[in-house]
Amino acid sequence: MKDEKLIKGIAALRISGLFELAETNTKKESRESEALAKRYILLAKKISAHYKVKIPKEMKTRICNSCNAVLIPGISCRVRITKGPLIIYLCSCGSEKKEYIGKQTQRPLRNSRIA
Ligand SMILES: [Zn+2]
């Protein structure tokens, strides 16, 4: 049991380390470093799945689900802000990621207008 906790701790450390590496590589803005950053995120996802360690929410919201890019506004994604508690991150691959901020944590109904 103790070993399992230790292994999960090491896995969490590796995930955060890989995310930091991916972030610095994305900021370099070259094709090679971008591919390397995506590879780091893929490895972090594999570690998380293998050792059943969750990727922290603050990291997960900054990763594109379709191309594994780190979403950094102005570098790898564009940001759209709506009137409501919703921020949309548009990745360079074309997919979008929605983030709800503020007290409202549930998704609004599909047909309701965001006030
Ligand atoms: Zn993407």
**How many domains is the backbone divided into?**
1
Structural class by SSE content: alpha+beta
CATH topology: Single alpha-helices involved in coiled-coils or other helix-helix interfaces
| Biggest sheet features | 3 strands, antiparallel
Q: How many E strands?
A: 3
- Envelope shape: globular
Notes on the protein architecture:
The longest helix has 26 residues, at 2-27. The chain starts with a helix and ends in a 15-residue tail after the last strand. With 115 residues, the protein is α+β, with helices and mostly antiparallel strands. Helix 1 (2-27) runs antiparallel to helix 2 (31-50). 43% of the residues lie in helices and 14% in strands. The chain has helices spanning 2-27, 31-50, 57-60; strands spanning 77-81, 86-91, 96-100. The protein has a three-stranded antiparallel beta sheet, with no helix packed on it. The chain has one domain (2-100): Immunoglobulin FC, subunit C (Single alpha-helices involved in coiled-coils or other helix-helix interfaces). The chain has three helices and three strands; from the N terminus they run αααβββ. Bound molecules: zinc ion. The site of zinc ion (ZN) has 7 residues, from loops.
Question: Secondary structure elements and their pairing?
Answer:
Elements lengths: L1 H26 L3 H20 L6 H4 L16 E5 L4 E6 L4 E5 L15
Antiparallel strand pairs: 1-2, 2-3
Helix pairs in contact: 1-2
List keywords for this structure.
single chain, 115 residues, alpha+beta, Single alpha-helices involved in coiled-coils or other helix-helix interfaces, three-stranded antiparallel beta sheet, 3 helices, 3 strands, binds zinc ion
